[in-house]
Amino acid sequence: MGLSIGIVGLPNVGKSTLFNALTRNDVLAANYPFATIEPNVGVVGVPDPRLDRLAEVFHSARTVPATVSFVDIAGLVRGASEGQGLGNRFLANIRESDAVCQVVRVFSDPDVVHVDGRVDPADDIATVNTELVLADLQTIDARLPRLEKEARVDKGRQGLLAAMKHAREVLDAGRTLSSEPGVDRAALRELFLLTAKPFLYVFNVDEDALADTGRLKELAALVAPADAVVLCAKVEAELTELPDEDAAELLASLGQSESGLAQLARIGFHTLGLQTYLTAGPKEARAWTIKVGATAPEAAGVIHTDFQRGFIKAEVVSFGDLTAAGSMAAARAAGRVRVEGKDYVMADGDVVEFRFNV
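Now predict its structure.
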C-alpha cells in the first residue's frame, strides 16, 4: 500500500531542491518557471528507528521501511485553472496524488526570482488554493445539471447531490474542501476533487530562521489545522550528502532533533491517516503500511491477498514489549505475546506473525 504525495507550489519556491533531497536524485533545479515539466516521481523510505532495533532482536539480514512516493509537479501560476502556464497538466498530476504538499517560499534570495516579484507566504498559499478551488468549481458545475436529473429518478444519487451542493457553497466562499469539517468527502470521492485531498504544507525558510520559534509558530498558524513542516531545503540537501554522525551534528547546531525530511514523511503518514505494523525474521525486518483502524485480516492482506483470504489468527506483541523482553521467546514467557482474531484492530508498532490457510 503506497502513499503518493504531490509536491506543488508556485515556481521557484524550492520544490525541486526539496525533491532532490528527498530522493537524492539530480532533478533539474533551475532559476526559472517550469524547470519541472514532466512530474518526477521518487519512492522514499520512511525513517523508522524501530526497524534497526527489531533487526538486532531477530538478527535480520536487512531492513525494509515503509515507503512514500513523492511527485514533483510543475510550478503553478495564477490562471492555472484556465489553462495558464502548464495548467491542465498541472491539475491532472495533482488529481493522481493521494495528498497535496504545498511548498511555500519564505527564504530571501535576490538571485532566485519570485514569480510575483515579492516573498509573501500568505499570498502564495492563497494563490495556489484559489486555482485549486476554481478548478473544483469547474468540475462541480460540469457535473451538477446531469446529477440533478439522475437524482430525480435514482434516489441513491441524492446523497452525492446534497454533498456536491454543500461542496459548491464551501468553494464559492473561497475555502478548500479539506479545511471544512462538515464536507462529506467520502461521498465526493468519485469526482476526484482537488481540494478534497488532505493538505500539508512545507515552509522553505532561510537557515537562520530554523531557530526562530516565534516565526515558526506564525507560519504554522497560517495553515492550521493542516499539518505543517518548516525546513530549509538547502540544509536538507546538504544533510543528504553527509555521513550520519556529521548530519546529526549539523542538525544539533541548528537546534533541530530530526531532519525536515523525516518530519515530512512522518507527518505525511499522519495526514493520510496511515500507520505501520512490523514483521521480522532472519531475512528481514520490515514495516508495512496500513490505514489507522485496519483489522488484522486487512493488515495481513497488505502482505498477500492469500493471507487475508485464509486468515486464522495473528500473534501480536507491541514493539515496546518485545524490545523490553529482548526476544520473542522471552516476550512469550512474560505473557506479552497475544493471539488475536479477525476483529482485532491493529495498533501502530505491532510486531505480528500471521497464521493462515488457503
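Residues 1-48+66-273 form a domain with the Rossmann fold fold (CATH 3.40.50.300).
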